[in-house]
Amino acid sequence: MFKKSYQRLKDYFSFLRDASRLDLFELNFGLSSEDINYLYRASASVLPPPRGILSITLYCMKILWRVVISSIKSRLLKRSNLVKESIPQGKILFFIVSLNQWSAVKEIFNRMQDCILLGWDTNSCSKPLTLRVCLCAIPFYFLVLKAYLSSKGYRKRSLTYYFDQYWLSYGFYVAGRCWIRKTKPAAVILANDHSGACRAMLEAARDEGIMSVYIQHAAIRKQRFPPLGFDYAFLCGRDDLEKYESFGPSRTKVFLAGLPRMDVAYGRENTSRQLKRLGIATTYNFDSKIVEDLLCIIRQRFVHLPISLRFHPAFSGERAFKNVLRKYNISISHPHQEPLIQFLDSADVLICGVSSIHLEAVIQNVYPLYYAMSKNEEEFYGYVEKNLVESIDGPERVCEKLEALMMDKPGVRQRAQKFHHLLGTKHEGRSAEIICSLLATIAGHRSEFEHSWKKISGTALEAYELT
C-alpha cells in the first residue's frame, strides 16, 4: 500500500515536471494563433469579459470553489449508494469535450465494444474528473501568470479573455497522464486538434507511449492549423488532406474515410425541385440584429413560407430570441434535442454563415446559401471559393434568390465530392463501419488494412483511400 502511494506521488511530480516544459501557446493553439484569430471573429456576446490580474485570480478561485463544492455533493450522493468511480483498463478511450465532437464520433462509439467515453456523457464513470483537472492545474497558476505578464500583442489579449482555459490545459495534461497511466488504453481517440484540452490529452498519450487517433469533427479552415501530430487520422476528403498538407510535414498516417456523422443521411437526400421549406442556421458568434433583419425581410416577402431556425450548439441566448421567433412565425430546431440530419430533412434550402453545416446540407441535396451573420465574418472554410456554396449579400438579394429557387431548385449533391471522399461510391453510408474496422485493426497492431486500402500517390502526407 505504501509502495503504491509512493509510486503515485512520484509519478505525479514527474507529470508536473513534464507539464512545465510544454509550450503554453502551442498547447492552446486555437486560442493563441493569430492565423485562426478567434478573438477577431468572436462577437461580444461570445467572448468572456477581459480581466486584469486581480480579476483573474478571483475568477480562478471561484472556479475551484465551485468545482470543489460540486464534487463534495457528488461524492456524498455516491457514498450513499456505495458507487465507486472507476475507468476500465485496456479499452479504446474516446476523449470528447463538445456536442459537435460527440456528433462526429457517436456512430463509431456506438458500434465499438471495447471502448470508453471520457467527456460528453451522462454516465458518471465516463465524465472527466473535473476536480482533478482543477487541482492538477493549481501548481501552474504562476507559470501562466508569468506568460500573461511577459506576452504581447494577440497572445496577451487572448490570455486576458481566456486565462482560465490556458491554465486548465496544464491540469488536463497532468490529469490525462494519471488517467492513461492507470487505465493503459489501447488507443486515445480525439476529435479536435487545436483546443487546449484535446491537445493536452494528445501530449499525455504521446508521453505515455499510447497510440493516438484523430477523427475530424468539422471542416478545416484555410488558415494555418497545427500540423497533424497523431499516429493516425481519419479525414473526410481530399480538400481536408490538401489543407493539412499545407500546414506542414507530419508522420501521421491519413485515411480518407468520409463523414461518419452523415451515414444516417444516406438514402435520405432531398428530391424536391422547388423551395417549399426554408432552414436558417446561425453561427456561434452571429450578430442578432443582422439575423433579425434577415428574418423580417424574408417573412415580409414570403408570408406563408415555413421557416425553421437552428441556433449553434454553443449559443446560450435562445430565450432572448423567443419574441422574435413568435413575431415572425418561425419554428425552432433545438440542437441539443433534434439531430442536424432531421433539421435538414425539413428544409429544401439552407441559409447559414460560416459553418460546416453547409457541407451536410449539400450531401443531403439541400441548396446552400452563404450569408454573413456578423460584421467581422470571413468564410474561412473555402466553401464559396470552391463552389460548394453560393454567397449572397443583403436581405433583398436573398429574397430574389429564394424566389428563383421556388421556381427551380437544382441538385447540388455532386458539389461535395472533394469534401466527402466516399460520396457516390459503393462505400457511401458506411464511414463509421469502415473506421471501426480499421480502429480494431490498428489498435491490435495488425496491418491487414493494407489489403483494402491503397496509398494515394503524389501527396506530401502518407495518405490512403479505399480500393
Nutshell version of this structure?
The protein is an alpha/beta fold. It has helices at residues 2-20, 24-27, 29-32, 38-41, 53-81, 99-111, 130-137, 141-150, 153-183, 196-207, 238-247, 288-301, 322-327, 340-345, 357-363, 395-407, 431-443; strands spanning 92-96, 115-119, 187-190, 211-215, 232-235, 253-256, 278-281, 307-310, 331-333, 349-352, 367-370, 390-391, 453-455, 462-466.
The biggest sheet amounts to:
8 strands, mixed
Uncertain segments:
76-85, 121-128
Helix content estimate: 40-55%
Strand fraction? 5-15%
Average pLDDT over all residues: 87
- Report the radius of gyration as a whole number of Å: 23 Å
- Report, as a whole number of angstroms, the end-to-end distance: 54 Å
Number of strands: 14
Shape: globular
What's the tally of helices? 17
Structural class: alpha/beta
Oligomer: single chain
Strand adjacency order, main sheet: 2-1-3-4-5-6-14-13
Can you give a write-up of this model?
By secondary structure, the chain is α/β, with parallel strands linked by helices. The protein has helices at residues 2-20, 24-27, 29-32, 38-41, 53-81, 99-111, 130-137, 141-150, 153-183, 196-207, 238-247, 288-301, 322-327, 340-345, 357-363, 395-407, 431-443; strands at 92-96, 115-119, 187-190, 211-215, 232-235, 253-256, 278-281, 307-310, 331-333, 349-352, 367-370, 390-391, 453-455, 462-466. The protein has an eight-stranded mixed sheet, sandwiched between helices. β13 (453-455) and β14 form a beta hairpin. The longest helix has 31 residues, at 153-183. The radius of gyration is 23 Å and the shape is globular. The termini are far apart.
